[in-house]
Amino acid sequence: MKKILLAASMLALVSCGSTQDATTPKKAKKSSADTNVDLAVKYASTITAKDLGNHLFTYASDEFEGRDTGEPGQKKAVEYLKNFYVAEGIPSPLGGDDYYQEVPASYLNKFSRGKDLKDSENVLAFIKGTEKPDEIVVISAHLDHVGVNANGEVYNGADDDGSGTVAILEIAEAFKKAADAGHGPKRSILFLHVTGEEKGLLGSRFYTENPTFPIANTVTDLNIDMIGRVDERHKGNPNYVYLIGSDKLSTELHNISEAMNKKYTNIELDYKYNDDNDPNRFYYRSDHYNFAQYDVPIIFYFNGTHEDYHAVGDTPDKINYEMLEKRARLVFHTAWEVANMDKRIVADKAKKKDE
């Protein structure tokens, strides 16, 4: 498969303009709520279709060999992620130059259904909260894909889950710009790229069993898995995203998500796959589920399946970058709100387990 050049049409995409910073002189005094809105819009506007595309045309290129768990292409992927965080000055919670949570082959092969997997890594980056640093908002996506087929064709995985991966990079950069300007989040943000999702949600399972921060301190997991395409159901109206699980553990998180969308992004929030009787069982099929099992409120952002799902046609030229930008901004706004609330969101629907 030839490497695909960034389409000229993508360069014509126009990002939303930013509003004035709260420090701009004003004729009338604004409330603290108004100031917060201005800042959220300002930093969300740094998440652009162009930058998302620049990342994805590299991350989902043939060079990364389909990012199969433990294989050389996946090692290139984690190096790309680490180098981004180092360049942006976003530290690792593990300390120093160590951005990798090692996931050993011995662990992976306990659950790999007979496959012989090699050592792999989750990638972690972190922005410390200014007021409630021990409370953690997790934004997650899986970094792996399914590799190369018997004919040597690369499964690029641009949508699955290159789209979620590059969205996190842009969201992290937006939070870092805010923090550098003195507007860091009250709660800490963990940017979590997990491996082994395609092998059975194994990287996120390893993280939740061996968390860098106590699961009890984890406020939410906003999980992004495929947000770059448009499915057949929405061909006539691509301005949508499926939300799964937002109301299953926390009424408050669901309401915040709805409010942030109404205020900022105006995307159709489709709950088709949130139905408990959904035969696809998508709620159980991405990395948020390992957090939900510990009663951590979650939202799963998803564009639905398409003809190139787990096929060689899942390439970066087929991504709808305008919608990738809007969906990533929705995640940012939701994370911003949850991270900056005075009180931690309540998991009012959690099924309490014995410790």
TrEMBL record:
The protein's name: M28 family metallopeptidase
Secretion signal span: 1-21
Domain Peptidase M28 residue range list: 122-333
Keywords: Signal
InterPro entries in the record: EF_Hand_1_Ca_BS, M28_fam, Peptidase_M28
Record has Signal as a keyword: yes
One Pfam family per UniProt: Peptidase_M28
Entry annotated with the keyword Cell membrane: no
CDD domains, per the entry: M28_like_PA
